Amino acid sequence: MGTPPDTLASRTYLQLRHDIVRGRLAAGSKLRLIDLTARCATGMSPVREALSRLCGEQLVVAEDQRGFRVAPLSLQELDDIARVRNLVVDEALNDAIAHGDAAWEARVREALAALGEHEAPVSGRPAILPAERLDALEALNHAFHQALLSACRSPWLLKLQEGFYHQAERYRYAALPRARDKRFTWDEHQAIAEAALQRNAVKACRLHDEHLARTHASIRAVLADRLAPTAARVSPPRRSR
Length: 241
Known about the structure:
CATH class of the largest domain: Mainly Alpha
Largest sheet: 3 strands, antiparallel
Distance between the termini: 66 Å
Mean pLDDT: 89
Number of helices: 9
Shape: globular
Structural class: mainly alpha
Oligomer: single chain
């Protein structure tokens, strides 16, 4: 019995998103359908459906009569993602703290403990880790941030946050080949979780904003030279009247 079409499409979407975010499909590169069917071991229909979803998430760009490309990277987009992500996360975190129950508290503690087991030993010092361990840490980091916001009552806020998370993740991975080390931040994660569990929404949001700002600054510093020409081609903003 074959794999159901919706399962094939979802699996193909997740694989392509993973490969784009990790940089295994390079920013700006051409996406040929025949190559992607071989890469994902599937047919044209699941690939087309996956590309359509990825276009909606702005990870892929559709070109009229020319197929698809991986979305480019730019400093302007990096800054915009950071700014708007903060707004979304603050709203979601405030709501989660206000309405989180005992099950939410347990999810946060469990995710923090799992992350700490792997992140604490490499935090506070330069650490160059193999790709497999970085991927594992990224998955635990994602799970922690998901748990932190999981009591938010707005599906739209959670959906937006998830999209911004993966956009930011793509820039983190783009910076890694040129970075001396990855910014491991166990102490920051621990402080955010403690403030949230103490129901101190103002402190939790401030710490989370600072956490994202430090990560953004670190990534931007690494990518500035590489992406500056792209940023320079962007039309300057109109003058205020």
